[in-house]
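Data card: per-record layout.
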Amino acid sequence: MLKVENLSIQFGKRVLFDEVNAQFTKGNCYGIIGANGAGKSTFLKILSGELDPTTGRVMLEKGKRMSVLKQDHHEFDNYTVLDTVIMGNKELYEIMKEMDALYAKEDFSDKDAERVGELQVRFEELDGWNAESDAAALLSNLGVPEKLHHSLMKDLEPKMKVRVLLAQALFGNPDVLILDEPTNDLDYETVAWLEDFLANYENTVIVVSHDRHFLDAVCTHIVDIDYGKLNFYTGNYSFWYQASQLAARQRAQQTKKAEEKRKELEEFIRRFSANVAKSKQATARKKMLEKLKVEDIRPSSRRYPGIIFEQEREVGDQIFECENLSKSMEDETLFSKAEFRLQKGDKVFLYSKDSRATTAFYEIINDKLKADTGTYRWGITTIRAYLPYDLSPYFQEDMPLVDWLRQFAKTQEDREEVNLRGFLGKMLFSGEEALKSVKVLSGGERIRAMLSMMMLQRANVLMLDEPTNHLDLESIQALNNALIRFKGNVIFTTRDHAFAQSVANRIIEITPKGTIDRLMSFDEYMNDKKVQELREKMYAG
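The structure for this 541-residue chain is written out next.
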């Protein structure tokens, strides 16, 4: 279907890909993973023809159509939403426009009629008569209301534009579908619809995503970009991660006999293939796993941050409580009547359909924003650490990272250079990187620096507003595991489904009409019919 032959790309002296050969076949979904800077997005640009390789070539089977999720949100500003979606099938859209132009002619001739007849044959082959209804259905499924379908793209807010461009990529059943971070700015319900759509998609999908739940739901293969090469693995992300971790542990156990290692790996493959997600792809995926050879499982060379949250002291019985908290912005109610009390061991997923609501709530309970109504109280035994959504105020000064971290140290021992570098080293800031100016840190580096600060504070209550933003999969996995192990209390917000499901034991949703509070996992919460009925009432106009 889609082949890559002897592909290399070099930027100056840096070789990003070196003599890469790969084949992507029909019926499979390939999840592209790799550390930040490994070249995931660059590889997709090469596949789509947006970027030329230094050497080698990309070959798409003759007569097949490729569709790409566009990243330029202004490219279609002067087109209607429906037209933008139909433009996903360029040939169909051009036929429609030519036919419209011919029909609009005042001096419509026999030659024009003959041309219309030719166009209609191809129009029917491309299922043109259903184009508008199919485009409208895609938009509705992706959360774009019908009232916006005839609006101009330039009049849409950015989050809606993302959904329209995703509908454009999905439109018309392309033979090869290339998606770079398709779940960005989508709510959980829309991501779930997209997961079902792609899990049942019969053509070829190639996707880059930091959403592990999404990769697990849709992928038949994981493609790991490492050292300028593409390494293909059968199975979804969880299988790749667990298998590579098992292989790494085995490699560290030098005394373990080869036969024992083989049996352990074979048992792992059997267990995982029995737990494949339910979808049309499940049977094929299970067969692939059953055919997998033990030799195909290799340890990853990837580096994972060492995130360990320790408590200076255990929290007492009085932790946190709030009563009747509310906040509005520009005459719009973000949340009202927020009331709950934290108990020992609570790991709360703080949720809202409007991310501004959760961010405002964190800012209020950290004394950075004033509530419109209500009160809140922290227990005297609480030691709190906060990772806000907007990190820019923390990184204004031009100072070395190690000195930046020193200002958050509470003891003389923590202020020592060796200890500060230890905390930074755990977050992969080693050697000269610890002297880098904080003003030039990337988004992912800023979050890793903030996590170093939080570890240094030894808090017993952690608050994290969208902590997975900008992080690579390795850092997300490490943070996820650290919060599961943490013995204190956690309040967090995230768009990462796997993160929410694995960490939270309590869901608190703040809405314009009150609070929904349940002791259950995130999946249980989203699948509880009574909860969903209540949510509809809470958000009703």
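Known properties of this structure: The radius of gyration is 26 Å. The first strand starts at residue 2 and ends at 11.

See the next section for split statistics.
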